[in-house]
Design goal:
Elements lengths: L12 H8 L10 E4 L6 E8 L4 E8 L13 H16 L7 E5 L4 E5 L5 E2 H6 L7 H12 L10 H10 L3 H10 L19 H9 L2 H16 L3 E3 L8 E4 L2 E4 L6 E3 L1 H22 L4 H32 L8 H28 L5 H4 L4 H20 L8 H6 L4
């Protein structure tokens, strides 16, 4: 019955679970609720109240939910495989996969309901003093271990083929790297009143466009490590004990700095929104100060921890040359700054917005936030390789 893909409805799930996964022992009385919050997948929580046990079922469909456009379900296999690989490298931060069903493009995985969506927590101005240590730990454990500095070179090349993610990389190459700088598909959404600003500061800024294209080229050709590929704050779940990283369906072999830059961008955006829109309060000050210290702590803490992991883990003597390691890590940090800028600009100009911007009620405040973000993002992109480009100084300018 389940040998050919079809989209599961809630009523189909109990029988499907009973056949595929003996997790609950019975399927009568299971409580099933849909948690889907995106455009390309269906997510359900299945709960046995009697045993107080639960799991998540995630299914990839063959079409986009919004438009009905066909989309290859290979992304589902990539996501499940990525979770399994990263769970071995960082089990405390990656949900466990119980079963992957390739015919139905379904992943059964650990329920992480005790963690909350990081985006919404920041929108509530919550602060997490240990987040920089946790995300650095994630990057240090998962990135280096998938490079050919650790893996056998043949194994790494085979992984590059396995994780060739054509359709979803194409989405990123358009929405992140191309359309924000050349609206050739006419899909950009520029806030009314910022049209001339965007034309002058982005579309007609030849230096900015040139640097963005360099970063795009790096994204498309630098198969450095197995990366998440879409590590925004909605893919991070958090509490005061730790984090869980979810939804790596955009995973592929790319530059390590891309994931780091995405995390940084999605800290900067809510901080800028808070600075412009929130009334003066202790909560506002605490949130701004937390972001202003967390962003550089991630960048430069990563550099320290990555080097330590490098010398502890890399076995090839010629690769342990200190000058090479310094260059390697500096390039990752520079990439991270540049990719942070690109992610910010595409969320301001592109057609895929974030709730932090969409929920700004006052039109003039939104114009101000977007202009400040574009200015900061442009500096990050253009000056990314300058050692003095300190993000703490940039974020301190939030209060100016």
């Amino acid at each position: 019955m389940y040998s050919t893909h079809f989209k599961l409805d809630i009523k189909d799930i109990p029988a499907y679970v009973e056949e595929k996964l003996h997790f609950f022992g019975k399927t009568e009385g299971l409580e099933i609720s849909e948690l889907s919050d995106g455009n390309i997948n269906y997510v359900y929580k299945i709960f046995d109240r009697e045993k107080n046990s639960s799991l998540i079922l995630k299914q990839a469909d063959v079409v986009l939910r919004s438009s009905g456009r066909p989309l290859d379900v290979k992304r589902s296999e990539i996501e499940a495989t990525m979770l399994q690989i990263q769970h071995k490298l960082a089990p405390e931060m990656i949900p466990e996969v119980y079963l992957y069903d390739p015919a139905m493009s379904v992943t059964f995985m650990e329920d992480v309901s005790e963690y909350k969506n990081f985006r919404y927590e920041m929108m509530d101005r919550q602060v997490f003093p240990s987040f920089h240590k946790q995300i650095i730990n994630y990057f240090s454990k998962t990135a280096l271990g998938t490079t050919d500095l650790i893996l056998n070179r043949a194994e790494k090349k085979a992984n590059v083929v396995k994780f060739t993610n054509v359709e979803l990389c194409d989405i990123s190459e358009d929405l992140v790297f191309t359309e924000p700088f050349n609206n050739y598909k006419g899909r950009n959404i520029v806030t009314e009143g910022n049209e001339e600003y965007v034309q002058e500061r982005v579309y007609s800024n030849l230096q900015l466009v040139s640097e963005a294209m360099k970063l795009r080229y790096n994204f498309m050709n630098n198969a450095q490590a197995l990366i998440h590929g879409d590590l925004h704050s909605g893919s991070i779940f958090i509490n005061h004990n730790g984090i869980k990283i979810l939804d790596p369906e955009f995973a592929f072999y790319g530059p390590i700095g891309y994931d780091i830059g995405n995390v940084i961008a999605h800290l900067i955006v809510p901080a800028m929104v808070c600075q412009v829109t929130d009334e003066e309060s202790e909560t506002k000050d605490n949130f701004i100060n937390w972001v202003a210290s967390t962003v550089p702590a991630i960048l430069y803490g990563f550099e320290r921890e990555f080097k330590k992991s490098y010398f502890d883990s890399v076995q090839e003597e010629v690769a342990k040359n200190e000058m090479f390691v310094d260059w390697y890590t500096r390039q990752i940090v520079a990439d991270a700054k540049g990719y942070a800028g690109l992610e910010i600009i595409r969320r301001v100009i592109g057609d895929t917005k974030v709730k932090e911007l969409e929920t700004i009620v006052d039109h003039n405040q939104r114009l101000t936030v977007e202009r400040k973000l574009i200015e900061l993002a442009s500096r990050l992109i253009i000056n990314r390789e300058e050692p003095g480009t300190d993000l703490h100084a940039f974020l301190s300018a939030l209060n100016s």
